[in-house]
Amino acid sequence: SQELEQSPQSLIVQEGKNLTINCTSSKTLYGLYWYKQKYGEGLIFLMMLQKGGEEKSHEKITAKLDEKKQQSSLHITASQPSHAGIYLCGAGVNRDDKIIFGKGTRLHILP
Amino acid sequence: DAGVIQSPRHEVTEMGQEVTLRCKPISGHDYLFWYRQTMMRGLELLIYFNNNVPIDDSGMPEDRFSAKMPNASFSTLKIQPSEPRDSAVYFCASSPGKGGWGNQPQHFGDGTRLSIL
Questions:
Q1: Is the pLDDT of residue A83 over 60?
Q2: Is B101 helix (H, G, I), strand (E, B) or coil?
Q3: How far apart are CA B113 and CA B94, in angstroms?
Q4: What's the pLDDT score for residue A19?
Q5: Residue ranges of B 27-56 with Cβ closer than 8 A to chain A
């Protein structure tokens, strides 16, 4: 079965610093999704990547997809307290309609 | 626009009791997903529906779990009898079209935090 591994599991950074979160799939990726979850709340969709080499940005968050490496990275520039939360990557399974998720990366921003 | 609505937000009950979780998807969304989230196992897909029909229930842990979608605007996830190991946050999500590789993101509700004593 396909698995998504996220690294690091937890990250503490000083406000204003840049950071990167990685998501690696054990099998071919069919669509890659990034979500953010605030503690005690639901998942908020950030962005979706479909093609190898694709890169998307939303405010200070940029995500890239490396199809050959079956990997995606999420980069936050000049982090702010509002970026704190859990970031989850999700990927399409084979050609099904369902998505599997990584276990998430917990991000803490120090003021 | 209203998002995915789940109820209740919190549920605390004793072992052996029946638990029913409810979900109202976003209007017009053809797909509905039920997930369970725990620290140990992360976010797990339990079952999903397309046009009210269950498509894949391979993630349902045991026969104690059942899910229904009687119409396009309502779904339930039932646990009977409940056990302490069922304690988790249960999420409902919906999407407007084919998910997964079909490139339609899922929209999540705020979840139901379930505690079985």
A1: yes
A2: helix
A3: 19
A4: 97
A5: 31, 33, 42-43, 45, 48, 50, 55-56
